[in-house]
Amino acid sequence: MTAKTWTQNNPxxxxxxxxxxxDPRVVEAMNPYWTEKFGNPHSRNHHYGWEAxxxxxxxxxxxxxxxGASTKEIIFTSGATESNxxxxxxxxxxxxxxxxxxxxxxxxxxxxxxxxxxxQQDGFDVTYLHVQENGLIDLDVLKAAMTDxxxxxxxxxxxxxxxxxxPLKEIGQLCRANKTFFHTDAAQAVGKIPLxxxxxxxDLLSISGHKVYGPMGIGALYVRRKPRVRLxxxxxxxxxxxxxxxxxxxxxxxVGLGKACELASKEMAAEAERxxxxxxxxxxxxxxxxxxxxxxxxxxxxxxxxxxISFAYVEGEGLMMGIKDLAVSSGSACTSASLEPSxxxxxxxxxxxxxxxxxxxxxxxxxxxxxIDYAIERxxxxxxxxRELSPLWDMAQAGIDIKSIKWAEH
Amino acid sequence: MAYSKELIDHYENPRNVGSMEDGASDIGTxxxxxxxxxxxMKLQIKVSADGIIEDxxxxxxxxxxxxxxxxxxxxxxxxxxxxxxxxxxxxxIAEELAxxxxxxxxxxxxxxxxxxxxxxxxxxxxxxxxxxxxxx
Lengths: 410, 136
Ligand SMILES: Cc1ncc(COP(=O)(O)O)c(C=O)c1O
Prior knowledge:
Chain A: Keywords: 2Fe-2S, Cytoplasm, Iron, Iron-sulfur, Metal-binding, Pyridoxal phosphate, Transferase. The complex is a heterodimer. Chain A is of the alpha/beta class.
């Protein structure tokens, strides 16, 4: 293989949790549906409509197959944000008269947390579970939080910052026993780990196209039929998608999501194994080259395509500036306008000073072993350079505990 | 976010990185910021008997703008009297490096670091003088 040269304007992509490139095979599958096969899938009167409808239904089948669902249980949406909003608000509003308590967790994606906040404004009770140091919820704490008023538990399958996998099957069992619906935001899990809605007792499951090598702007929500889960729709109109989500389906995007799920079904196992090797190579390589680095989140209960590491004594944004030929993201404050370090890392109990030194490294379908070695080389070089610049590194070397110093917080 | 050439140059080739002996009476050390806030600057000045800053060194934990701001001020203070150095304003630093608005706090920290180093030097000098008075 020829060695690629990565530059600031053509950086090596290691941010697969932010988004995944659309697989060329997905683009190819979508292409005819923009031009020749442009029909409205809801037109029942002519060939254009039928052909689009057929394509949509085939895609629905691929999405369903990937999670062990049936086609009638898949609703297409604009993405996981909409799916999460629909699942949480839809269930809460339908059943709220009888049960008005929701349980979620502090490390959820903002779209889940904000949907819950909105329901609190409408009078719902929401419990935000804390997580353990490894990023996983404590099942006993979940069990203790459930009451006969709990209508919904919404716990993400895989966390977008630290890649940890929640104990879905155990959560599903607890929910079923309590007659509580179980929703999981599986945006980062679909196509990465095996999911089976029946085996895991999942009642609602959110999917995002652009996290599974499909297009942006499309997603899906699995809504269980037996026993039936009912939702109040967010979007009213022509009654498409079994009246749970009105609006003309975007055929090319739906076809793209379907193709992406079909590919994932076939390739997930081999891909996971390959990425697992890369994850290991990257983590070991970094540990070998750089002392005092810390993994955030559990290593075992984790998707293979993610590492989130604190490089103590080197601020994350400063580090990213030195590795501009790598496209990664940081849990440090400074990347956002808020100046607060990542709420997910804080929820694990990671000290603020360490949270500021973290990088999220995301690996995926198009990552090569060469890429891993390049990343190790670049990160090690830059961390070691910046440590030479760091007064905190000096203090640590001199045996001074930085917590013993009275810092002026600003 | 596009950073200025000046900023990138200071980040990639920082000037005057290092440490000087903290205990020496002609050295003033300023340590400002906090690890929990994501930036810490250590700025040291070596002052001659006639009050001129002969040398300056820094170490910084922080983003590229924080590193560049502290590197820049080490260049600026060298050769100045401590009174002149004390007049360096964060706005001058921000302007020279074309800091984006969210990074203005880095220039504020650099100004604080100079002030803290001068203050430290002055208080050391004062105790040294007192010591001398007592001995006479
Ligand atoms: C865990 C998780 N949930 C939800 C979303 C939102 O997905 P979408 O971009 O499809 O709306 C994301 C992506 O940022 C995510 O990582």
